[in-house]
User: Which sequence fits this backbone?
C-alpha cells in the first residue's frame, strides 16, 4: 500500500512552509483568524473520534491522530512562550525541544485527548488576544531559533503557526480519509 502514495505529499499535504517576501496587514489578519479558529476546528474534527480512529496514522510511520493533537498542544504552548519572550526581551534565543521524543512520552500517546484540546483552546485564546493587539513594532520584534540559526520576526512566526495549524489539520483529515490504511 505504501508504494502507491507520494510520501512527500503525505508529509506536507498543504505544501512546505515558506516565509512570505512581503507581509501585509491583510495577511496578518488572515493568519490571526486561522490561529484563532484552530481550537474550534481541531475540536470539531476530533472530539468524537474512537480510540481506534485516534490510532490512525496520517502517513506510513507517521504520528497517530492522538499524537498530532498532543503535539499541537505542546507546540503551541511553546510558541506562545516564544512570542511573549520576543515581546519582553531583546531578540531572545528561544529553547527548542525534541518534538519527536515528546510525542512518545506518556502524555503524547494518551487516548484521552480532552486535556490537550483544552490546552489548545486556552493557549489559542491568549495567543489571539496578544496578536489582535499587536502594533507594527510588535510584529517586527524577533527571536533567534538556535537550531536553524535564523532570526524570526513575529509576523513571520505568525505566518508559520497559521500554516502549522492548517498543516496538522490536513494530517488529521488525511488519516481519517485513509481510515488507518498506513
Assistant:
Amino acid at each position: 500500500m505504501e508504494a502507491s502514495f507520494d510520501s512527500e505529499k503525505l508529509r506536507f499535504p498543504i505544501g512546505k512552509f515558506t516565509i512570505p517576501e512581503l507581509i501585509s496587514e491583510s495577511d496578518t489578519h488572515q493568519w490571526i483568524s486561522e490561529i484563532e479558529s484552530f481550537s474550534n476546528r481541531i475540536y470539531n474534527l476530533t472530539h468524537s473520534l474512537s480510540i481506534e480512529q485516534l490510532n490512525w496514522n496520517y502517513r506510513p510511520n507517521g504520528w497517530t491522530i492522538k499524537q498530532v493533537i498532543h503535539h499541537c498542544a505542546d507546540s503551541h504552548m511553546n510558541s506562545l512562550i516564544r512570542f511573549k519572550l520576543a515581546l519582553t526581551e531583546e531578540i531572545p534565543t528561544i529553547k527548542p525541544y525534541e518534538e519527536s521524543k515528546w510525542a512518545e512520552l506518556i502524555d503524547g500517546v494518551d487516548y484521552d485527548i480532552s486535556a490537550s484540546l483544552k490546552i489548545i483552546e486556552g493557549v489559542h485564546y491568549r495567543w489571539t488576544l496578544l496578536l489582535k493587539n499587536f502594533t507594527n513594532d510588535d510584529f517586527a520584534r524577533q527571536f533567534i531559533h538556535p537550531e536553524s540559526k535564523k532570526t524570526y520576526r513575529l509576523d513571520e512566526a505568525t505566518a508559520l503557526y497559521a500554516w502549522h495549524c492548517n498543516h496538522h489539520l490536513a494530517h488529521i483529515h488525511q488519516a481519517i480519509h485513509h481510515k488507518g490504511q498506513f
Observations:
- The radius of gyration is 17 Å.
- The first strand starts at residue 142 and ends at 145.
- Helices lie at 7-11, 25-46, 51-54, 65-88, 99-102, 114-132, 136-140, 154-178.
- The mean pLDDT is 95.
